[in-house]
C-alpha cells in the first residue's frame, strides 16, 4: 500500500532525478560518497524536489543504516534510539525532516553525535537555513540548495515509473496521452511527489479499455486526478507558454483588458507559482526604473496571493496586473545589465584599478592597493572624478536612461549631471 512516490525513491545516486549540480559525477555529494567522506548536511528547497531521495540514495550508495525522523513531531527518545543504534552498529544516516523546527533539547542531544560522526545527519527543510536554523547546527553541517525540477527531469521520472515493473507501474498496460503527460509534468510546478502520486491514482482508478486492452489516460483523467486544469488540449502543450507570453506582452503594451483576460486563463488553470514569478519579472523588466514602487507593490501583492491561495489570490493578482499595465515602462535596467554581461562573457573585463582594490590587510600599501583612492563623501556633491572601470572598459557606458517615468527622469538628470562634471574635469 506504499504510494508510488515512496516506492520509486532511489537507492543510489545515479537514480536521483535532477539536482545534477550536487549528485552528478564530479559534483560535491557524488565526490563525498565516492571518497567515503560523508559529513552532515542540510538540504533546502521547495517540497517534492528530491531532499528525501538524495538522503535515501546516499544511504543506498554507502550501505549505511538509514533512519528518518521529523524534528517537529518525533521526540528526544526517538533520537536516543538512533544514537544507540549508531553505537552498536556503526554509522547511521539520519534524515531529519523539518530541521528548522528542531528545539534546543533535541539539538543539545544531537550535537555531540554529529561531532564524533556516529550520526550523519541530513537535515531537510523548505526554509532558508541561514535564517531559520540555529547557528550551532549550521556550523556542523554543509548547506546545499536544491533546485526546482525541470520539465525534462519530471518526464524522465514518469517514463521510469511506467517502465519499472518491480517498484513502479510496469505491470499495468498504460497508454498515457502525450498532452496528458506534458500537463502532468508541468502542472505540479516541479513537485515530483505530486506527479507520481497523481499518476498512480490515474492508473489504478481507470478501467482497462475493452477494445484496446489498455488503461488509456487522457488529459481529462490527469486533470481530474491532480486537480489542475490544462489551458488547452493542444498536443504539444505550447498554449501554456503562449498564454504566459501573451500576459507579459499585454502588460508591456499597457492593454489592461487583454492582460486581465490572460491572467484569468492562468488563474483558471491554477498556476499560482507561474503567475507570481511572471509578474515579478514584469515588474522589474518592463516597468523597472520608470516606477520602482509598482514593482514593490507587485511583490507585496504576490506575497498576499501566496498566503491567501485561490480563489482569493485572484484579487491581489488583479491589483498587480492593472497597476503594472497602466504604469510607465522602462527596460533600461535589464538592457544595462545585459550589456555588461555581454562584455564579461566576451572576456572584456580587465584588472580592477589599484586604487579600488581591498586595502584592509597588512602589506596592502606595499602592493599599491587602495593608495590613491579618493573618498567621494569628502568632496562637494559626494562626487569626485576618478576611474572606476578597468582600463580596457574605461570609456564604456551600459546604462542608457529613459524618461518615461518621474523616478527615472530624476535618475537621468543626475546621470547627465555627472557626465557634465566629467567633461568639465577633462577640459
From TrEMBL:
<dbReference type="InterPro" id="IPR003959">
    <property type="entry name" value="ATPase_AAA_core"/>
</dbReference>
<dbReference type="Pfam" id="PF00004">
    <property type="entry name" value="AAA"/>
</dbReference>
<feature type="domain" description="AAA+ ATPase">
    <location>
        <begin position="37"/>
        <end position="149"/>
    </location>
</feature>
<dbReference type="Pfam" id="PF12002">
    <property type="entry name" value="MgsA_C"/>
</dbReference>
<dbReference type="InterPro" id="IPR051314">
    <property type="entry name" value="AAA_ATPase_RarA/MGS1/WRNIP1"/>
</dbReference>
<dbReference type="GO" id="GO:0003677">
    <property type="term" value="F:DNA binding"/>
</dbReference>
<comment type="similarity">
    <text>Belongs to the AAA ATPase family. RarA/MGS1/WRNIP1 subfamily.</text>
</comment>
<keyword id="KW-0067">ATP-binding</keyword>
<dbReference type="InterPro" id="IPR032423">
    <property type="entry name" value="AAA_assoc_2"/>
</dbReference>
<protein>
    <recommendedName>
        <fullName>Replication-associated recombination protein A</fullName>
    </recommendedName>
</protein>
<dbReference type="GO" id="GO:0008047">
    <property type="term" value="F:enzyme activator activity"/>
</dbReference>
<dbReference type="GO" id="GO:0005524">
    <property type="term" value="F:ATP binding"/>
</dbReference>
<dbReference type="GO" id="GO:0016887">
    <property type="term" value="F:ATP hydrolysis activity"/>
</dbReference>
<dbReference type="GO" id="GO:0006261">
    <property type="term" value="P:DNA-templated DNA replication"/>
</dbReference>
<dbReference type="Pfam" id="PF16193">
    <property type="entry name" value="AAA_assoc_2"/>
</dbReference>
<dbReference type="GO" id="GO:0000731">
    <property type="term" value="P:DNA synthesis involved in DNA repair"/>
</dbReference>
<dbReference type="GO" id="GO:0017116">
    <property type="term" value="F:single-stranded DNA helicase activity"/>
</dbReference>
<keyword id="KW-0547">Nucleotide-binding</keyword>
<dbReference type="InterPro" id="IPR008921">
    <property type="entry name" value="DNA_pol3_clamp-load_cplx_C"/>
</dbReference>
<dbReference type="InterPro" id="IPR027417">
    <property type="entry name" value="P-loop_NTPase"/>
</dbReference>
<dbReference type="InterPro" id="IPR003593">
    <property type="entry name" value="AAA+_ATPase"/>
</dbReference>
<dbReference type="InterPro" id="IPR021886">
    <property type="entry name" value="MgsA_C"/>
</dbReference>
Amino acid at each position: 500500500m506504499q504510494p508510488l512516490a515512496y516506492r520509486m525513491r532511489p537507492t543510489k545516486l545515479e537514480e536521483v532525478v535532477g539536482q545534477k549540480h550536487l549528485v552528478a559525477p564530479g559534483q560535491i555529494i557524488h565526490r563525498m560518497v565516492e571518497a567515503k567522506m560523508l559529513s552532515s548536511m542540510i538540504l533546502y528547497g521547495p517540497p517534492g524536489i528530491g531532499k528525501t531521495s538524495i538522503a535515501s540514495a546516499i544511504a543506498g550508495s554507502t550501505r549505511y543504516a538509514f533512519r528518518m525522523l521529523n524534528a517537529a513531531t518525533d521526540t528526544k527518545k526517538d533520537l536516543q534510539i538512533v544514537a544507540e543504534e549508531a553505537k552498536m552498529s556503526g554509522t547511521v544516516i539520519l534524515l531529519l525532516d523539518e530541521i528548522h523546527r528542531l528545539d534546543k533539547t533535541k539539538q543539545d542531544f544531537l550535537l555531540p553525535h554529529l561531532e564524533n560522526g556516529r550520526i550523519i545527519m541530513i537535515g531537510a527543510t523548505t526554509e532558508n537555513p541561514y535564517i531559520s536554523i540555529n547557528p550551532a547546527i549550521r556550523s556542523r553541517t554543509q548547506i546545499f540548495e536544491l533546485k526546482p525540477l525541470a520539465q525534462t527531469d519530471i518526464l524522465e521520472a514518469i517514463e521510469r515509473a511506467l517502465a519499472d515493473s518491480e517498484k513502479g507501474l510496469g505491470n499495468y498496460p498504460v497508454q498515457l496521452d502525450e498532452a496528458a503527460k506534458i500537463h502532468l509534468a508541468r502542472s505540479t510546478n516541479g513537485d515530483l511527489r505530486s506527479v507520481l502520486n497523481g499518476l498512480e491514482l490515474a492508473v489504478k482508478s481507470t478501467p482497462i479499455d475493452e477494445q484496446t486492452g489498455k488503461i488509456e489516460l487522457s488529459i481529462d483523467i490527469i486533470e481530474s486526478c491532480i486537480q489542475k486544469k490544462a489551458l488547452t488540449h493542444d498536443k504539444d502543450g505550447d498554449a501554456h507558454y503562449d498564454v504566459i507570453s501573451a500576459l507579459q506582452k499585454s502588460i508591456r503594451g499597457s492593454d489592461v483588458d487583454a492582460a486581465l483576460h490572460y491572467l484569468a486563463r492562468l488563474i483558471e488553470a491554477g498556476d499560482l507559482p507561474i503567475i507570481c514569478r511572471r509578474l515579478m519579472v514584469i515588474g522589474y523588466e518592463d516597468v523597472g526604473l520608470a516606477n520602482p514602487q509598482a514593482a514593490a507593490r507587485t511583490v507585496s501583492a504576490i506575497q498576499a496571493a501566496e498566503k491567501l491561495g485561490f480563489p482569493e489570490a485572484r484579487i491581489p493578482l488583479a491589483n498587480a496586473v492593472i497597476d503594472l499595465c497602466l504604469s510607465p515602462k522602462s527596460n533600461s535596467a535589464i538592457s544595462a545589465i545585459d550589456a555588461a554581461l555581454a562584455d564579461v562573457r566576451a572576456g572584456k573585463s580587465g584588472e580592477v584599478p589599484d586604487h579600488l582594490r581591498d586595502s584592509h590587510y597588512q602589506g596592502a600599501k606595499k602592493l599599491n592597493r587602495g593608495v590613491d583612492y579618493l573618498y567621494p563623501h569628502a568632496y562637494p556633491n559626494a562626487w569626485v572624478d576618478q576611474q572606476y572601470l578597468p582600463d580596457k572598459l574605461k570609456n564604456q557606458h551600459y546604462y542608457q536612461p529613459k524618461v518615461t517615468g518621474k523616478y527615472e527622469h530624476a535618475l537621468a538628470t543626475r546621470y547627465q549631471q555627472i557626465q557634465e562634471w566629467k567633461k568639465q574635469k577633462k577640459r
